[in-house]
Amino acid sequence: MIVEKELAELAADIAREAGELALRRRDEGVQLAATKSSLADIVTEADREVEALIRGRLQEARPGDGFLGEESDADPGETGVTWVVDPIDGTVNYAYGIPAYAVSIAAVQGEAVPGRWQALAGAVYAPAHGELFTASRGGGAHRGAQRLAVTTETPAGALLATGFGYDPATHDGDLATVRRVMAIARDLRRAGSAALDLAYVAAGRLDGYFERGLKPWDFAAGALLVAEAGGAVSRLDAASARPMLIAGGPEVHDRLTALLTEEA
Ligand code: IPD
Question: How many angstroms does the Cα of residue 111 sit away from the middle of ligand 1?
């Protein structure tokens, strides 16, 4: 039997350990390991080392589960549960010494494809802030021991967040999207970590979030946090190369969806 709370506790324990490793490596100085899809899309030695630690710990605790991570090969496993992992979400912040980065670990059931999986548990840990966000299916979302709830009212307009893809060819389109959503915004943030943006929506620190082209590990844990905090999460154009993730309190989510569905 799958016990979501136990999966969330495991994710939280490993995320903390992994986050402390990332923090230590950051203090020692960041080594760039490679660039990926574009010059701006970087991976550090720490990303790889932290992912290896997470993978090893999960393997010890739950042999047979699948694994889908940002920096290493996927393994479908044989239990029907897959761990979707971003060892350091916000790698560019990490490389520059900006504290907005996080370890993101989610357990999902079913096919390990966004839209087809069922998220069971998740943890997002921001080591430079010492903040741990956790969620389990049906068990709510929490920051430490505090239960989280999304915002429901935005009298002065919505505080929104977004992100931009690494491919410069996508910037014009993403900026056109920003222009469109500013109609309902109080202001806009671009903090550099999708996992933290989603955790902040869950915590009521942001009213809504939207971004095209996220990878599964960027949002697997964060999307469950938002849903378990009473928010709504959806993906527009799911079959396209750059689906649009929208998250927020129910009303902001719906207003964003309406604005972005009109998109040319
Ligand atoms: C990135 C961050 C960023 C988002 C990018 C992601 P990474 O993840 O979440 O906020 O705008 O789309 O790729 O590369 O730092 O793990």
Answer: 23
Nearest residue to 106 via CA among 93, 118, 119, 91: 119
Other CB atoms closer than 10 Å to residue 57's CB: what's the count?
A: 18
Residue 88 alpha carbon, nearest atom of ligand 1: 16
| pLDDT tens, residue by residue, 173-194 | 999 999 999 999 999 999 999 9
Domains and CATH numbers, the chain: 4-147 (3.30.540.10), 158-263 (3.40.190.80)
CA distance linking residue 70 with residue 242, whole number of Å: 17
Contacts for 31-39 with beta carbons within 8 Å, 24 or more apart?
32/95, 36/166, 37/166, 37/167, 38/166, 38/167, 38/168
| Residue 128 Cβ < 6 Å to ligand 1 | no
Cβ distance 216 to 224 under 8 Å?
Answer: no
Distance from the Cα of residue 263 to its chain's centroid? 24
> Each residue of 30-41: pLDDT tens digit?
777 888 887 888
Provide the 8-state DSSP code for 134.
E
- Determine if residue 88 is labeled as part of a ligand binding site: yes
Is 70 annotated in a binding site? The answer is yes
Flag whether the pTM goes above 0.85. yes
Handedness of CA 242, 215, 40, 208 (dihedral sign): positive
Query: What are the residues facing 44 on neighbouring strands?
Result: 32
H/E element, 93: helix 91-96
